[in-house]
Amino acid sequence: MVSADAEIKAALHTALQHAQQAGELPAGELLAEIPLERPKDETLGDLATPISMQLARILRLAPIQIAETLVRHMPVLESIAELQAVRPGYINMRYRAEWLTNQIEAILSAPEHFGEVSLGEGRSVQVEFVSANPTGPLHIGAARNAVLGDTVARVLEAAGYRVEREYYVNDAGSRVRMFGETLYARYAQALGVDAEMPADGYMGAYMVEMGSAIVAEAGRQYLEMERSQAVADLGREGLRRVVADIESDLALMGIHYNRWFSEASLYHDGTYDTAIAILERGGYLEQHDGALWFKASAFGVNKDEVVVRSDGTPGYFASDIAYHYDKFVLRGFDRVIDVWGADHQGHVPRMHAMLQGLGIDPQRLTILLYQLVTLKRSGEIVRLSKRTGDIITLREVLSEVGSDAVRFFLLARDANSQMDFDLDLAKEQSDANPVFYVQYAHARTCSILRHATDIDYSAGDLALLTEPAEQTLMRRMIRLPDVVRLAAQNLEPHHLTYYAQELASALHAFYRDCRVVNLEPGTEAITAARLKLVAACRIALARTLVLMGMSAPEVM
Length: 556
Description:
CATH class of the largest domain: Alpha Beta
Helix content: 40-55%
Number of domains: 5
CATH superfamily of the largest domain: HUPs
Number of helices: 20
Strand order of the largest sheet: 6-5-4-10-11
CATH topology of the largest domain: Rossmann fold
Distance between the termini: 31 Å
Shape: globular
């Protein structure tokens, strides 16, 4: 299926070049991205571009003059029947009716591929997301990371990239040692030993539960060994349990990884030593204040970064260096996307500087930042777990509202926007709940088709569908490939939620305004055409839900 937006943008670019070559427009820098809009007033057309207003300052001409010139030079497009330059300088476009119906037929002929676009051309992308310290259960903030990362991966796959999902397990460093100390104390306490908790240990109720669970399985064996060994062994066992719980929680949301990568492995297999040697040869490391520093300032960053602390232990940045050397050099990903909380924004420049120091193009790394999530119930902020009195875990939220609601609500806004998650709304079975509204639209298409199983609509003539609601539904439907392209190019999967609601709205309006199955004599042709339209809409809704990682229920 052809992406109309991409084809039209390419044609506008060609028209601009031809107009300049013909001397009808002065030479000037071409726009990197040609804008397309959908007019709110649909009588104006299906698409419009304000490109002439943007070029007016560059070319020093009136926008309407540029628009009229571009219209004259536009190549003939299969998708566009009419082009019109209108003041102050818009170019309005209307789809060709035959092209529109052909797009619906294309959806029906290859349903499993609807929404796919040729953007990545098989290039490899690694999406590393969540990667929360394995020292406790996932909370709702990590859930936004999970939904964002997994949906970006789904969109990139639909856009033609080879995608690998990865979870970076922080199983090295001081916090892991503190986790082991905490678990040892809780384990000993579960056996009646008066063990003191470390001052900066992990105080959550989950540590008490884990200590008791290990006692039930292992008895006193860890108390009978040398303490430092017991702390190390318990730490490893605790990490194994937490990682297994994280994997289980994410699986409840349909999230699975190609690889769980161990931070500790970077120091055991020589990767860290190799990466550090490259920076040393480049002159990007220096010793001062008893520590080893990366000279990020050599690449325009405002401060240098510690690689090895004064006590000889690697800092957080040391692992970043080795890990990204592994990603780009050892495993050879064409592109890497790291999904981080917005509180890490200050670390982005140093990451790009570090890649330059390793001889890697920093443009190959994208760090996708997301803002915080606030849970609300009855209009009030929810801060503590009802069960344990401490953090609210992802599993608790999933148990209360379900995976589909968690995914949709956490995807519904731009990652740069802080968001409220309304638990009451997420459970509401009404049109006010966007999850219900979209999924009910899919269930409605399934219901219509179930009740028409005796009708053969395969030869239905879509050209008969001229009612406004029919036309609107077709136009909404064919936008999915362009939404996928936009989401993949900008790493903005929230566009899927907007599209899903618009498509569901068009389907509900069509159902209200157009009688689909009519058994009266003489209505066979229009019934077949409308059933074919419903069948295509079911595909479009299902594909959109799948791209968002949600289920497509057939009955609600």
